[in-house]
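Supplementary Note 3. Input sequence used for the single-chain structure prediction.
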Amino acid sequence: MKVRRYDLVMAVFPNARGFAYVTFESPLSPVDWGMTDLSGKRKNQKRLRRLTAILDRCGPDVLVLRDVSYEPRARYLPQLVRQIEQMAARRGIVTVRVSREQIQEAFAHLEAPTRYAVVCAIAKNIPMFEPFVPPARKIWKGEDRRMGLFDAAALALTFYRLANGHAAG
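The predicted structure, written as discrete structure tokens, is reproduced below.
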């Protein structure tokens, strides 16, 4: 079976603060990444405007998003993901949704595949991300904004594993 090769794969991870994204040329070669924090009202509109600029600048071949169809806590996410998919379709960008279960399966080789273990595995395999590794979260602290960057990277690496049979992180 011949697998289609995508030159640029971008993964976007929307979160309560804004979103994070990573663009890869290959599973271990990120070429662009960033985190966007937004405040105030109309966060979804602001997310879409910023993401439009990033998509136009990077021009990915495929856009990977987390499948949030069954996300009970964040009611805004399903609509936002649909809007991002529509925006990508207008630009001729293929969109792929990756489920939480697929991410866990891609990183199942880790001794304990917690989110922080996934962060450490990604940083170990992609040294450019090492400076972004947040400290381990204490139960009384909020989530570090850099976690979104690793969530986006995990989406992209899971996509590569599913599409090409490569091992993630």
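The longest helix spans residues 147-164. The longest strand covers residues 18-26.
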